[in-house]
């Protein structure tokens, strides 16, 4: 098994899906590139760096909940579960959960074989007796789980408020597919970031050290490097703005003057002030979170928040 199996490349080694997404996105009136393309190697490193910036509270808030509420998770979930993590993180969150609930098996699921093997090795070292069954798959789709965990009760784990990157129809599709993957009666523990003061949110997505700006601009560098692009990255500016109507932080790359460039042979222009929309990060209330889960076929059972009410972890049942 190589780390490249799920990536379809042309003869020049270009990721076909990346090129198709970028060309389609840049031909729209509101230019856009899907946020999933942030995470090349440098992008993943920059994201890890974002999570330790003082303004970026979600990772600390969610970790605090997992740490502080461990015994409540144990009571609500019970031991002996097969924990299926959607997108195997390199995070400290997974060990906190596993220590709290004493599962019977751990199934990290990731589209990147490299991340997956690293995460599986890391977890096996920390939990020597725990069976670990990594699955290389796109968690946006329904996934066939390993036969070894067939008889065990299932707990899906989807931390990080990654669901917030999706518009509602996509989020609902994912939740339904998770229900299909895990089966009727299974549980899901999902992280969802909360609506709060716009200034706090905008700072979290525009840290003073400029790490989030670098993360956003890296996407333009990636287009140039991988798709033969000539985007003048120096003339783009990172923008993070709260969209109150849609309850989401939006990240954009804004042209600071009129620019023309090329991507994969396509000529493109941006006028001063025009943007490429690169990410949505939806924020939830207790009710909007419940509504989304219900639309996706999950009944919320219990909800935890950090001591400052910034972030929520919700346990739901299918
Ligand atoms: C990985 C989706 C949780 O939306 O907060 C962080 C990604 N983007 N800073 C988020 C991100 C800019 C992050 N998630």
TrEMBL record:
Which residues does UniProt call coiled coil?
none
PANTHER family for this protein = ERGOTHIONEINE BIOSYNTHESIS PROTEIN 1 (PTHR43397:SF1)
EC no. given is 2.1.1.44
Has the keyword Transferase been applied to this entry? yes
Name this protein carries in UniProt: L-histidine N(Alpha)-methyltransferase
The lineage's top-level taxon is Bacteria
Underlying gene: egtD
Spell out the Pfam families in the cross-references.
Methyltransf_33
What keywords tag this UniProt record? Methyltransferase, Transferase
List residues of the Histidine-specific methyltransferase SAM-dependent domain: 18-317
Q: Name one GO molecular function term.
A: L-histidine N(alpha)-methyltransferase activity
Asked if the record carries the keyword Transferase, the reply is: yes
Q: Name one GO biological process term.
A: methylation
